[in-house]
Write a structure and sequence with these properties.
- With 298 residues, the chain is mostly helical.
- It has 2 domains: 124 residues, Helix Hairpins (Orthogonal Bundle), CATH 1.10.287; 119 residues, no CATH class.
- The protein is 62% helix and 3% strand.
- It is built from 14 helices and 2 strands, in the order H-H-H-H-H-H-H-H-H-E-E-H-H-H-H-H.
- It is flat.
- It starts with 9 loop residues before the first helix and ends in an 11-residue tail after the last helix.
């Protein structure tokens, strides 16, 4: 399928520059956080093993104490908050290492850089929201889709705009977003695969993340993700649900009066023929070695 050429208007191009720069800043911050984790491991400090988010309030307080010169694991564990308080013994064990002044210097530099990047991200995000203008209502409508949030909706609109005239069908949009199902062949037989082809990698990333997030929800898309993941694996589920999300986006942007309505997590159960469901369960039991006899309930 041919992908449409797209020269967006200046407002969309500027918004795209901002959202892509935000993605790049997030990647830089993530890399810096990984350096912190590696530095702490070098000092035998296993903070990430016990603390789910080492850069949250508790984790930052512990790292600040390390930089300030505190080395007693019991004292270092005192700033723990919330559910982390129940893990005090494990936390003390994780903070028993050989943290030196050398580590303290590097950690202070890395945390300062993380804070600086976080401030830059916040500034760029403020600029994005100021740049949205007439796109703000569209962001609100896309935000209703499971798996999408305001930031993801902003990124999607920055990549595709609101004019769906250049995408004759949802399939064209899916192809451009790298969510067209791939096809491979072997011995003259066609086989589907989870490949998404070549296309807009920024759009592909945000839609893929949205598909995974949707899979955690109690919605139609969430149930669709789980059904496909059980049968065909998570990669195919991401492609299938990502494609569904793009179809919904295309429909919402093609008709400004359209609103998203969730079909519900029980859609498949209500839609499936009872006799077909019974046959499916019988086959599963027979595969386990059981003989099944059905007796209608009174």
């Amino acid at each position: 399928m041919l992908r449409p050429s797209f020269v967006p208007p200046p407002a969309i191009r500027q918004l795209r520059d901002l959202t892509r720069y935000r993605v790049d800043l997030l990647a830089v911050r993530t890399a810096e956080k990984q350096r912190v984790d590696k530095l702490l491991e070098d000092a035998l400090i296993k903070l990430s093993v016990v603390v789910s988010d080492p850069f949250g309030v508790s984790g930052r307080a512990i790292m600040a104490a390390l930089i300030a010169g505190e080395r007693d694991p019991a004292v270092l564990a005192e700033p723990a908050r919330g559910r982390l308080r129940a893990k005090t013994d494990r936390l003390i064990e994780a903070l028993t290492g050989r943290f030196t002044e050398h580590h303290a210097f590097l950690l202070s530099q890395m945390l300062a850089r993380i804070d600086g990047i976080s401030a830059d991200i916040a500034t760029v995000q403020e600029r994005i929201e100021a740049q949205l203008g007439e796109l703000a209502p569209a962001v609100g409508r896309l935000d209703a889709i499971p798996g999408l949030g305001p930031i993801a909706a902003q990124m999607i609109l920055a990549e595709i705009g609101t004019d769906m005239g250049r995408f004759p069908t949802p399939a064209h949009l899916s192809s451009w977003a790298r969510f067209a199902p791939g096809v491979s062949g072997s011995a003259g037989r066609k086989k589907g695969n989870a490949g998404t082809g070549n296309g807009n990698r920024y759009l592909a990333r945000v839609v893929g993340e949205a598909a995974v997030s949707a899979g955690r929800t109690d919605t139609f898309l969430g149930e669709r993700y789980r059904r496909i993941a059980r049968r065909r694996g998570k990669k195919r589920a991401i492609v299938a649900v990502g494609r569904s999300i793009l179809v919904i986006i295309w429909a919402l942007l093609s008709d400004t009066d359209a609103q998203f309505v969730d079909l519900g997590a029980d859609y498949y159960a209500n839609r499936t023929n009872p006799e077909r469901r019974a046959r499916h369960h019988i086959r599963e039991l027979q595969a386990l070695g059981y003989t099944v006899t059905l007796n209608p309930a009174a």
